[in-house]
Design goal:
Blueprint: H1 13-20, E1 27-30, H2 34-44, E2 55-63, H3 74-81, E3 88-94, H4 110-123, E4 128-134, H5 143-153, E5 156-160, H6 169-178, E6 184-187, H7 190-196, H8 209-212, E7 224-228, E8 236-239, E9 244-247, E10 251-255, E11 266-277, E12 289-294, E13 306-312, E14 316-322, E15 328-334, E16 340-348, E17 351-358, E18 369-375, E19 388-391, E20 396-407
Parallel strand pairs: 1-2, 2-3, 3-4, 4-5, 5-6
Antiparallel strand pairs: 7-10, 8-9, 9-20, 10-19, 11-16, 11-20, 12-13, 12-19, 13-14, 14-15, 16-17, 17-18
Length: 408
């Protein structure tokens, strides 16, 4: 019963629980070692029904920005948590030690957030979930990943700050503005709370107009569906309200309604894809990336049917078409290697064009665009078709945002 650097206390866990039974306040158990967690759960489990207050089980289970290897074993701790379904779980990432100056470039990443989602999904938790996040690491770029994580796991955020962090008020207001009031909690030093409090009910009043940025497009369930078409494969897809994350050839993001191009009309498909390494993969192949398929059914995906637009992690943009005569034609262009590309596909009655724009490099004033186009008459047998997106590998996650589909 102590907080590091202290390792000893004048009260035992059993004695403390006896006092809790006489209290009306909820309790938070913050575990700093696997051994302490195992011992505490052995004591807590038989007494949990006698505790008529909320119980929050907290531990840093994954390595975060500038963080150390967790001192609590992830698998062991989550297995213990599953034995107390009455609890609320608070699962976080290790970060820079308190007192150490946090580099302004540091922030939570899509890798951090996807790793947490993957771990949680393995345990099929039924408990309520909150994610303690350090305010100084919650930059504008982290809002979409955490919105997605909370969507997928029905979780909330608990935003905390160390006294020495000096977190800018703007960062707190951006977080508050992104999430419903009931989905984000703040645990802040008094000096920070004093500045934040006047704006917490109306965060936009404390933000400049250009600070708010553009809103991420909503990924409407009426327009898109996600599924895995082969249960034996390692493919998976997680569909949030703004973002789809998918990996593996059998994880498909598909438009719900078939589309048809009238004479003189066109289909426009635009969005952004960010490539994120799978945790166990270090080296990527040059032909790995996102496929966007037109004029093909799910059953035809493995047979190179229809038109396929490809965006590679190595900066490749290509369009490949296969007609009824099974002859394939392909046009390819190459650009700078990046992790983030904006894409735009225009499909007319007889032409398909693909443009990708590199989004990652901040040292370029103008993002680099590459494009390719070729004539592609629609197969006579296909009057209407759905758009199907998939990653061609399980080595990468594709994070798809700002997705827009327009038929003219």
């Amino acid at each position: 019963m102590a907080h590091p650097p202290d390792v000893d206390s004048d009260i035992t866990f059993e004695e403390w629980l006896a006092l809790v039974k006489m209290s009306q306040k909820g309790i938070k158990l913050d575990f700093k070692s696997t051994e302490a967690a195992v011992t505490a759960f052995e004591i807590l489990k038989p007494q949990i029904s006698a505790l008529h207050v909320p119980v929050l089980l907290n531990a840093d289970i994954l390595e975060g920005p500038d963080g150390m290897v967790p001192t609590v074993n992830t698998e062991t701790f989550l297995g213990l948590c599953n034995t107390i379904p009455e609890s609320t779980l608070s699962l976080g990432w290790t970060t820079s030690p308190k007192g150490k100056v946090v580099s302004p470039e540091l922030a939570y990443s899509w890798e951090n957030v996807i790793n947490m989602c993957e771990v949680i999904k393995r345990f099929n938790f039924k408990q309520q979930m909150t994610y303690p996040v350090r305010a100084i690491l919650m930059k504008a770029s982290t809002l979409a990943p955490f919105k997605w994580l909370c969507d997928i796991t029905c979780g909330t955020l608990t935003v905390w700050s160390a006294d020495s962090d000096g977190v800018p008020l703007t960062q707190l207001l951006l977080v508050r503005n992104k999430f419903p009031k009931s989905h984000v909690y703040f645990d802040l030093p008094d000096t920070v709370e004093k500045d934040f409090d006047p704006f917490k009910d109306d965060p936009t009043s404390g933000l400049e107009g250009n600070t708010l940025g553009s809103c991420t497009k909503v990924l409407h369930e009426a327009d898109w569906k996600g599924f895995v078409d082969d249960a034996g494969d390692d493919s998976r897809i997680y569909l949030g309200t703004e973002t789809a994350v998918l990996s593996g050839r059998h994880a498909l993001l598909m438009s719900r309604n078939p589309m048809n191009i009238s004479d003189g009309g066109e289909i426009n498909i635009s969005g952004q894809v960010q490539f994120v390494n799978s945790p166990k993969v270090c080296d990527l192949k040059t032909n790995e990336g996102l496929e966007i398929c037109l004029h093909a059914t799910v059953a035809e995906l493995e047979h190179s049917s229809g038109v396929r637009c490809f965006i590679g992690v190595d900066g490749t943009a290509s369009i490949r078409s296969s007609g009824s005569d099974e002859k394939e034609t392909e046009k390819t262009a190459s650009g700078p290697k990046s992790r983030i590309y904006a894409f735009h596909i225009t499909h007319t009655d007889d032409t398909v064009s693909l443009k990708i724009t590199e989004q990652e490099s901040s040292d370029r004033e103008i993002p680099v665009c590459i494009s390719t186009e070729f004539n592609c008459k629609r197969p006579a047998s296909v009057c209407a078709h759905c758009v199907i997106m998939r990653m061609n590998t399980a080595n990468l996650f594709g994070v798809i945002q700002d997705l827009n589909l327009l038929v003219q």
